[in-house]
Amino acid sequence: IERLTYLQSDLNSLEAEQADLRQQIPKFQNVTDDQKRLKREIDDLVDLIGQDVMERNAPRKSAVQIFADTSQFLYDEPGQLIIGKSAGVAGLSIETDIVGKKSGGKNHMQVFCFDWLLVEAAQKQDRFPGFLIHDSHIFDGVDGRQIALALKLAQKKCNALGVQYIVAMNSDDLEKIEPELNEEGMDGFNPYEYVMSSRLTDEPNGGLFGIRF
Predict the structure, then answer these.
(1) pLDDT tens sequence across 169-210
(2) For 123-133, b where at least 16 C-beta lie within 10 A, e where not — what string?
(3) pLDDT digits over 138-164, tens only?
(4) Helix (H, G, I), strand (E, B), or coil: what is residue 207?
(5) Which residues are within 8 A (CB) of 77 and not within 5 positions of it... i.e. 6 or more apart?
(6) How many CB atoms lie within 10 A of CB 164?
(7) Are 168 and 136 in contact (CB under 8 A)?
(8) Nearest partner of 94 among 81, 80, 112, judged by Cα
(9) H helices of the chain, where?
(10) CA–CA separation, 86 vs 50, rounded Å?
(11) 46 Cβ neighbours under 8 A, 6+ residues apart
(12) Over the stretch 6-61, which tens digit does the pLDDT of each residue have?
């Protein structure tokens, strides 16, 4: 009798578990169906993105050319901007590359070139706020010549586009470009003419507008 009672209790537990699993089967089937439906919708959207990229051929070519011209000014060879349909869920793929060894400085200059591309593209669509701002990180690990050329390029684009460029620079980065200012291609460019008087320093009486950070 004791054995029978134990088996009966075990049977009741298994029957309850079976009933619970049977209730969950439709839920799992619904999840599977939803996953398949969402995958189809994502695939359709990715295809639409690819189609949209191809239909906007003229703006795409313009963006590629702007990036190439900007990067060529810095490195004498045009970089690459590749816009296309991604094989993954991301949908739109945007890749950049410029000459030189892979480094933090090179990556920062790719961001510099891409940001100026966005400036021109946004301005053409009347969606640009009128200024571009970079912090000092943009020139970390960048050679003095590329920094000098980047500032020279920013000055030219500001004059041509009627925009404002603001960059926070470490004093040693600014000093690093001084030997480059008399080189060919600088055309008498002097970045010190654009330096603001307000400075942030770690001296005891330093700070910005009287505020210590």
Answers:
(1) 888 888 888 888 777 667 778 888 888 887 777 777 777 666
(2) eeeeebeeebe
(3) 998 888 888 999 999 999 999 999 999
(4) coil
(5) 71, 98, 99
(6) 12
(7) yes
(8) 81
(9) 2-55, 57-75, 104-124, 144-161, 171-176
(10) 8
(11) 85, 86, 89, 91
(12) 889 889 899 999 988 888 888 777 888 888 888 888 888 877 877 776 777 788 88
Mean model confidence pLDDT for the chain? 84
Burial of 210 from C-beta contacts in 10 A (0-12 / 13-18 / 19+): exposed
| Burial annotation 104-122 (CB, 10 A radius, 16+ → b, else e) | ebbebbbebbbebbebbee
How close are the terminal C-alpha atoms of the chain, in Å?
80
- Residue 109 is predicted with a pLDDT of 92
pTM for the full model? 0.68
Integer Cα distance of 109 and 97 in angstroms:
10
